[in-house]
Amino acid sequence: MSRLKDHAPSVLVAGISAAFGVALLRVTAVIGTAAAADSATSGETAGLVLGVVAAVFIVIAMYVAAIVTANTFSTILAGRTRTIALRRLLGSTASAERRAVAGEGLVVGVVGSLLGLAVGTAVAAGLTALAVALGHLPDLDYGVVDGSAALPVIAVALTTWLASWVGSRRVLDVTPMQALGGAQERTGAEAAGRGRRATALVLVLVGLGLVGLGVVLGLISPLGVLVGLIGGILSFTGLVTGSAWVMPPALRLVGRLFGGSAAARLAAENALRYPERSSRTTIGLVIGVTLITMFAVGTESLAQIIRAIDGGSGDLDAMLTTTVTVLSVLLGFSALIAAIGMVNNLFLSVLQRTRELGLLRALGFTAAQIRRMILAESAQLTLAALLVGVALGTFYGWAGAQALLGSVNGAPGLVLPGMPWPVLTALAAGSALLTWVASLAPSRRATRVSPIAALAVS
Amino acid sequence: MPAIPSVEAMHSTPSGASSAGSPVVARVEALAKAYGSGTGRVTALADVSIGIRRGQFTAIMGPSGSGKSTLMHIMAGLDSPTSGRAWLGDTEISALGDTELTVLRRRRVGFVFQAFNLVPTLDVSGNILLPFELDGRRPSSEEQAWIDRLVDSLGLRDRLRHRPHQLSGGQQQRVAIARALATRPDLVFADEPTGNLDSRTGREVLALLSAASQDYGQSIAMVTHDPVAASYADRILFLADGRLVEDRGRASAEQISAFMLAMERAA
Questions:
Q1: Class for the domain spanning B54-71+98-266
Q2: pLDDT tens for each residue of A322-372
Q3: For chain A, what is the domain count?
């Protein structure tokens, strides 16, 4: 059944975020139990702090998953326009059509989160057994499940449902007329409302102002970091809200880097064909890259300042490396979810361009040129996300470190951001891998398009 | 004046390369095409031999399922025959691989389809120049002058920065014609070029194709089932059940309709 196949990536995304949530909460509970057994006094607090930290990472992963799912639904619906138009023609109302789509979203969310529950529980149990076997944890009875698992499961099912509702907005724009004959394929013109743009702009400006204030206050008191944190959250929310205006210029700029060949120019245009779709496809990656870069640059900058104060020690470096690695892995799940969204969206957008690809083949595009075009499209999406994410992450990470330790006795005042090269290299390598992986299936599909079949009048 | 080979003449001279000055720009010999296998086997073309004359506007007619589209696809290097051979100029295209065929289409063939002729992300200028860009080059000054002339004579000067969705159906088809003529290909294939247009716009497009053939000596092969469209052509080839059944010169729409009706009754 094609509808089931349509939703396989969304089930995967819901499954991963639920599994991540279940496993992380479970591991946190296990560590809390072990800590409580170790020293009865501080165990409770340690468990609470770990739980809060885990919740933050779970919410980030769920947020990225929701963006990805909303985008996937909106892309799938673009391909279903003719069918929906036919049903509208035969008397179905627009709201009934939208409810049907949201119903699919609820099924996707429930199926995905239950699969995630099973996988997450199994992974956590495995990790616990491994840690006990290696002697990192005392051999206690940790149980296999606890009530906390219900939270991510329910939350993922609900956010997937909500995301499918948001992504199905364009169903309302389908007219019965579109069922009749060759409606011309349109490009662009998906821009969101003016109110959203104003909201985004205010959030970014106020947020950046607060970040700047935090850095200045940080030269006097470590409490500057709290002002900066609020500013960071506000400005980044603004950027994500306004991604439809932030990402297209970045995509355009990156598109120019690939030169003026026909394949590169078409790829650049394709990535901007539906600005909102490309923005949502890339913003998930931007969130992941920004957060990973932020923590890495933040800790590296902190290390710089601390070294300037007391000359530094080996213990500090080892501790910071461990922290950055753990945080990067946790955030890596959000990046993975965003990557799945990108792979799926690139594939769907190629699927929906079958006739255009047939035309290009007829006019003399070789299979190699088609492959280059799709690779360039894929590279454009990942590279734009990488550049924006690294730039934002570097700024936020530096501002955080500066605001936290700028006032400490012996600190050098303003420092340059510390660049965590191993993390940045890993991000670049990951992006290159994603570019290549994302282009595989669409390329295979696109070079198999027969110009005759694609151009036959349906 | 060199002898113009008739269908019979093509049969009697089954091989031999044509020179640049040849009156025949494309030809097929004993061409057959079948789809599927076993009991589901469908014969689209059975032993067709045709020459398309240089500089002429040729219509290929026939009812649905007569094999006219399949013939065009093979002659244009979009499809391969089950048996038989096809040439474009001196090149035997039935012997070429996918990449060679692709480059041949890019340089030596022009296309005007019924619908979906243009790349939606490119503006009019970008669509017209696409065959050059695919070749990784810019038009020479001589080619640019030719393109400018086409743009002016097709009335597209004010539209060069427009996207396809901003154009009417007739304007889109004129852009497709400009693109097809821009590289001065050996042969332009037009597949039901008026199928999606109202009759007045359709007549304009046909007059443009006819003028391209008369004024510029462009060879054009047009597949159609519309007698009015075929009446603009210098020569009309009729196909039925995968075979060539008639080859005649210019005719009126009434004569063509009458012949097609007679063909239907005989079937």
A1: alpha beta
A2: 888 888 888 888 899 999 989 988 998 888 888 889 899 998 889 899 999
A3: 2
